[in-house]
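Model it.
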Amino acid sequence: MSNDAFRSKYGPWAIVAGAAVGLGAQYSRQIAARGLNLVMIDRDPATLAATADAIRKEHGVEVKTLEVDLARADVGERVAAAAAGLEVGLVVYNAAIGTVAPFLETTPALEDAVVDVNCRGPMRLVHAFVPAMVSRGRGGVILMSSMSGNFGSAQRAVYAATKAFTLVFGDAIWAELKPHGVDVLTVQPGSTRTPGWLSSQPSNPKDEIMPAMDPADVVREALDTLGVEPRVIPGAENKQGAELLAQLPRRQAVEMMSQLTAKLVRNDRPRA
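Modeled.
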């Protein structure tokens, strides 16, 4: 899709939640490169401001920022107020809390926060912005799941469950909204070189536990797939890995995912 066609279908404004670093920053940059103005949301105001300023200078688009905790029950109303008067044609929900710890070592309060950000947050933003897209007969929603959503994994019980929720939620609203001209895409990245991923890796790159994609490549494939399919697993190796796991008995697949998670946990960092 050309930049003009993308802007016509999903512009003139896009909202990116979890926009300051990593995949969210890449979504913001690449969407701006396609000519859309941005409302960037994050809970880290300093990093958010720096990223927004760089995008303004590089792409010449309008960028508004909002510091907000996406776990808040009123997050939909707060983001809608920040975007009042703007024609929002694209919502990207990239924010997530990713805990890695045995379930019995976490707390109900932390589990509630994970569910609030990873599940309730995207629902609230869809409620806030998609009805107007339906009325206009065009628009798009991108939800970030994970390959962790395909199978349970020890030490990622709640996180993986929320990503499974995102997959099913995304499929459902894809089917509901497609007849109204609104595209929905659920993205399942594997290991990606985000700040969070890098913090879990050995200090020597030669000792990396597994190869990871560059965030720019993940986002590029996602944006190119929006409006084509309801789901995408970015990267050829990730697609092959998902196909292999799907062919295994569930017990074996869950054990393999759990072993991989255990390798990603460094003994010298907090586990939740």
